[in-house]
Amino acid sequence: MSKLTLDVDAVQAFVTIADFQSFTKGAEVLGTTQGAISVKLKRLEQRLGCKLIERTPRLVRLSAQGAVFIHAARDFIAAHERAVTALGSECRHFRLGIAEHVAGPEIPMLLARLNARDPALIIEVRLENSRSLLDAFDGGELDAVIVRQEDDRRDGEDLGPEYFGWFAAPDYEQREGEPLRLAALATCCGVRDVSTRALIQAGIEWNEVFVGGGHAAVMAAVSAGLAVAACSCRLAPADSIEVSQRLGLPPLPSSRIMLHTTLSDSRSREVLRTLAAIYREHRPVKRREAGH
After folding, report:
1. Could you give the C-alpha distances from 158 to 11, 21, 65, 125, 270, in angstroms and in order?
2. Binning pLDDT at 50, 70 and 90, where does residue 222 land?
3. pLDDT digits (tens, 9 = 90+) for 229-253
4. Is domain 164-247 in CATH 3.40.50.150, yes or no?
5. How far apart (Å, rounded) are the C-alpha atoms in residues 262 and 202?
6. Which of 22, 71, 103, 178 has its CA 20 to 30 A from that of 196?
7. Which pLDDT does position 292 carry in this prediction?
8. Are the C-beta atoms of residues 183 and 229 closer than 8 Å to each other?
9. Which CATH superfamily is domain 92-160+256-281 in?
10. Of the candidates 271, 272, 278, 234, which has an alpha carbon nearest to the alpha carbon of residue 19?
């Protein structure tokens, strides 16, 4: 009986398609075309004698056989990576800075997939304000940074849009005739500058009743019903609602999330493609005010 041998690239294509539930995103991560990974998957399925991925115009998912094979496939890829890096290759460090007002629910998935993609990679993540991260990047302390476009005007890779709104607890009440109670980040925050400028232009008075303490603290003040905050629709507390129309607050301009890096070697570029694909997978949407 002949032994069954598997092609590493074909198995990697299958795992990547399964991870992102998309041929397009899988091709982006692997730096190839959708047609190329489709061919690799087809050859793998022919080799194994079963269908691994079910594909419809709206859905890409594992077949029953694919769900059984996926764990072994991940182990196969990890073993291959260990074998490749075993002789003379030291663990590599990847130093990533993410602005604290950009870091969102995709971060745990990002780190897990980067580790699965390159088990020999040691990932160091810094969550700080944009200015500190950009200074560290310019000083060679970080390999890549993710910030909002307005925080740094140089060219970078566009990871997608960022939408903003005014958020408050569902039971928040604004007393008639009183200034808006505003929770805001520190004075160096770009979102604070944009939102207060919008309030000035709209002729709306406000008092900053909760300032600083980081994004988590400001969002806690919102959830507690203490104030209104201008923030990313992607990062607003799940128990908050958009209150622009109810309170007559001005619209806020959207922004872009940008990736800056100086890395150009092939292994680093693979990591960066994975990172970019994960951010694009979690493209934010505008949160409409309840009842509108």
Report:
1. 29, 22, 37, 20, 17
2. confident
3. 988 888 888 889 999 999 999 999 9
4. no
5. 41
6. 103
7. 47
8. yes
9. Periplasmic binding protein-like II (3.40.190.10)
10. 278
Answer for the pair 253, 5: CB distance below 8 angstroms, yes or no: no
Q: Among positive and negative, which fits the CA dihedral 26, 27, 30, 35?
A: positive
277 φ/ψ angles, rounded to the nearest 5 degrees: -65, -40
* H-state helical runs in the chain: 8-20, 23-30, 34-48, 64-86, 107-117, 130-138, 190-202, 214-223, 244-247, 266-281
State whether residue 168 is helix, strand or coil. Answer: strand
159: number of Cβ within 10 Å: 21
DSSP string of 206-267, one letter each residue: EEEEEE-SHHHHHHHHHHTTS-BEEEETTTS-TT-EE-HHHHTPPP---EEEEEEE---SHH
Question: Rounded to two decimals, what is the model's pTM?
Answer: 0.64
pLDDT tens digit string along 110-147? 777 777 777 777 888 898 888 889 999 999 999 999 99
DSSP secondary structure code for residue 153 in this structure: -
Other C-beta atoms closer than 10 Å to the C-beta of 200 total: 12
- Rounded Cα distance between 68 and 274, Å, is 24
Write the CATH number of the domain with boundaries 8-86.
1.10.10.10
**Residue owning tokens 């300032």:** 211
